[in-house]
Amino acid sequence: MFGSYLPILIIAVVLGLATQGFVNASYRRYSQVALATGKSGAEVARYMLDSEGLGHVGIEMVPGHLTDHYDPKQDVLRLSEDVYRGRTVAAAGIAAHEAGHAVQHARGFVFARVRGALVPTAQLGSSLAFPLILGGLFIGLSGLITLGVIMFAGAVLFQIVTLPVEFDASRRAVAALSIGNALPAEQMSGARTVLTAAALTYVAATLIAVLQLLYFLGLSRR
Asked: Considering 52, 60, 81, 98, which one is annotated as catalytic?
C-alpha cells in the first residue's frame, strides 16, 4: 500500500533539492552583483510602493535568510537583513517582488483575495489531513480517509491559487524595476533569474501536492 507512495516521495525529494539548489545558486550569484543605481532593497521597495501610491505601507527589517514577506494585516513589508540593506540585483528583485504583493492587496487582486480566504482551510488541511488518512487506513474506516482527502484537497487548492499570486507579484516587480531606471536594463535579466528561481519552488510544491492528492484519492476509492 505504502510502497506505491515511494515514487511520489522520490519525486518530492528530487524536485525539492533541485529547486532549492537553483534558488540558492541564483541568489548567491546575483547577491554578488552590485546594483548599478546603488540603491538598497529597502529603497527599491519604497520606490515601487510610492510609485503605486502606497506611501502608507511600512517597511521593516526582520531576522533570518530569505524571510521576506508582505503582511496584509499590518500592511507592512518585512525584509530580511540581506535584502533590506543589500545593494545588489538579488536584493532589488526580492524587495520588488514583495512590494508587488502589497500592490496586489491594495488593488484587490482576485487571486490574492482568494488565497487569503483559503489560509484557514490550508492550515487545517495541512495539520489534520495526514493523521485522518493514516488513522482511516489503520482502522479500516473509509469515511475517515475521505475526510482527510477532502481536507488535503483544500490545502492543494491553496497551493494552486498561490501560483498566479506569485507570478503576478514578479510581473509587477519586473514592470516597476523597468520604469525610471530603478534597475538598469543590463541588470534586468539577473533580477528575472532570481524571481524565476523563487517561482519554481512554488511550482514544484504544487506539483508534489497534486501528485499526493491523486494518490490519496486512489486510496479513498479502494
From this structure: 98
